[in-house]
Structures are given as structure tokens and as C-alpha cells.
């Protein structure tokens, strides 16, 4: 059997190490690249394209959610599995709609990680059980009603998530390599779109929409 080539992209060395260690016992899998940023990933793929890409959403330069369409346009056979700490039905659905093959949480163990990889190789989608539960029909119907007429960009979703994680404007600006003024403009735009008056309202609406838990 030809080995499955896997690349890992996460800005935390411990996460990259942990994923590599979980994959190492499987003789059918070889890790061909590890990257700490979106730009490093893009450069690495110019040299070698893996079968599977384990991709974090929160990268220091380019959000993973913004990388997905770029990568799939250039490498249509690449199978992307999101590995994140964000337990969000809204985000999982958004990304699987963009043709990612998996959505895993960073608490996932080796067994489910391998299951997601082998599912992706069969062109199937695997979603973490905790998130799959959130994607039940009842939740989807409730979210569809809440989200009616509300369209958020990937960048807006990411900023909203960071706000709910108590990041300050300067911290969000530094994380996304944007100016504080730009972040302020995004925040005001989110408040208008979601029809809330303050940060507490943004957090509450994000929870109701399933963007964060």
C-alpha cells in the first residue's frame, strides 16, 4: 500500500509534536511536512503536496478558514482536515460546505484522528462527535432561523471568536496582523450586522448562532 502523506499546520510546536506522535505508529502514514504559519504552508506545498493536510484555523498570518478555498483551488485533490479548539457547529458547517473533509477538536485522540484520515482518503467527511451532536436537525433548524439574513465573512467569524475569548483589540490586531483601527471597524460592523449594542451582546449572539460554545 502506498503510504498516505500527511502535512501538519499549527503555530504551536506542542500541537505539531502531539499530532506527529499520534500518527507515528501507523505504518501506512508518513508525515511529509510541518508548518507553523499559512505562508510557510504555501511555500512548502510548492515543493511537495501531501494527500492529507491537518490544518488549524487560528494561524499567526492567514486564518485557516481563508486558506481553505485558496488551497483547494490550487490543489483540488488535497484533502483538508481542520484541527481546532473551537467547538462550533456554525464553523464546522461553514468549512464542510467549502469541501473540507474533516473537523476535529484538539482534544481528539489517536483513534478518531486516524479514522478521520482514512475517511478523508475515501472522500468521506468526518466530524468530531461533540460537534456532530451540535449539527443535529433541531440545532440546524434553530440556527437557520437565527442566522436568517445574516451573512458573516470568515474574517468576521474569526474576529468574533477572538472577541468571545476575551482578546483585546490590540491582541486581535497582533494575531491577525491588522491595525487596531481595522479591528475596531470590524467590531462595529459586527454589532450592526448582529443588531447588538455592546460586546456582551456580541458574545451572546455568537453563542446563540453556534459560532462559539
Q: What is this entry, summarized?
A:
This protein is of the alpha/beta class and 213 residues long. The chain has helices spanning 13-23, 38-47, 64-74, 89-97, 110-121, 129-134, 137-147, 154-164, 169-176, 180-193, 199-208; strands at 4-9, 29-35, 52-55, 79-84, 102-105, 126-127.
Topology summary:
Layout lengths: L3 E6 L3 H11 L5 E7 L2 H10 L4 E4 L8 H11 L4 E6 L4 H9 L4 E4 L4 H12 L4 E2 L1 H6 L2 H11 L6 H11 L4 H8 L3 H14 L5 H10 L5
Parallel strand pairs: 1-2, 1-3, 3-4, 4-5, 5-6
Helix pairs in contact: 8-11, 9-10
Keywords:
globular; 213 residues; alpha/beta; 6 strands
Care to describe what's here?
The chain is of the alpha/beta class and 213 residues long. It has eleven helices and six strands. The chain has helices at residues 13-23, 38-47, 64-74, 89-97, 110-121, 129-134, 137-147, 154-164, 169-176, 180-193, 199-208; strands at 4-9, 29-35, 52-55, 79-84, 102-105, 126-127. A six-stranded parallel sheet has the order 2-1-3-4-5-6, with helices on both faces. Strand 4 (79-84), helix 4 (89-97) and strand 5 (102-105) form a beta-alpha-beta unit. Helix 8 packs across helix 11 (199-208) and helix 9 (169-176) crosses helix 10 (180-193). The chain is globular and about 60 Å long.
Largest sheet: 6 strands, parallel
Strand residue content: 5-15%
Number of strands: 6
Kindly provide the radius of gyration, computed on alpha-carbon positions and rounded to a whole number of angstroms.
Answer: 17 Å
Average pLDDT level: 86
Helix count, per DSSP? 11
Low-confidence stretches are none
Structural class: alpha/beta
Q: What percent of the residues sit in helical stretches (DSSP H or I)?
A: 40-55%
What gross morphology would you assign?
globular
Order of strands side by side in the largest beta sheet? 2-1-3-4-5-6
Task: Give helix and strand order, one letter per element, not per position.
Answer: EHEHEHEHEHEHHHHHH
Euclidean distance between termini CA atoms: 41 Å
Amino acid at each position: 500500500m502506498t503510504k498516505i502523506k500527511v502535512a501538519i499546520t499549527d503555530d504551536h510546536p506542542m500541537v505539531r509534536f502531539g499530532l506527529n506522535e499520534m500518527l507515528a505508529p501507523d505504518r501506512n502514514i508518513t508525515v511529509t511536512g510541518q508548518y507553523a504559519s499559512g505562508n510557510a504552508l504555501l511555500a512548502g506545498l510548492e515543493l511537495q503536496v501531501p494527500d492529507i493536510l491537518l490544518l488549524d484555523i487560528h494561524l499567526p498570518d492567514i486564518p485557516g478558514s481563508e486558506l481553505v478555498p485558496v488551497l483547494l483551488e490550487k490543489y483540488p485533490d488535497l484533502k483538508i482536515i481542520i484541527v481546532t479548539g473551537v467547538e462550533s457547529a456554525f464553523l464546522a458547517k461553514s468549512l464542510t460546505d467549502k469541501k473540507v473533509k474533516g473537523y476535529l477538536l484538539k482534544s481528539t485522540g489517536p483513534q478518531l484522528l486516524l479514522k478521520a484520515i482514512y475517511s478523508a482518503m475515501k472522500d468521506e467527511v468526518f466530524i468530531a462527535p461533540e460537534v456532530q451532536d451540535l449539527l443535529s436537525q433541531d440545532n440546524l433548524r434553530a440556527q437557520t432561523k437565527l442566522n436568517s439574513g445574516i451573512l458573516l465573512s470568515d474574517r468576521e467569524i474569526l474576529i468574533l471568536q477572538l472577541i468571545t475569548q476575551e482578546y483585546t483589540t490590540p491582541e486581535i490586531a497582533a494575531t491577525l496582523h491588522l491595525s487596531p483601527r481595522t479591528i475596531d471597524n470590524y467590531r462595529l460592523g459586527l454589532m450592526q450586522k448582529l443588531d447588538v449594542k455592546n460586546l456582551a451582546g456580541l458574545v451572546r449572539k455568537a453563542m446563540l448562532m453556534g459560532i462559539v460554545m
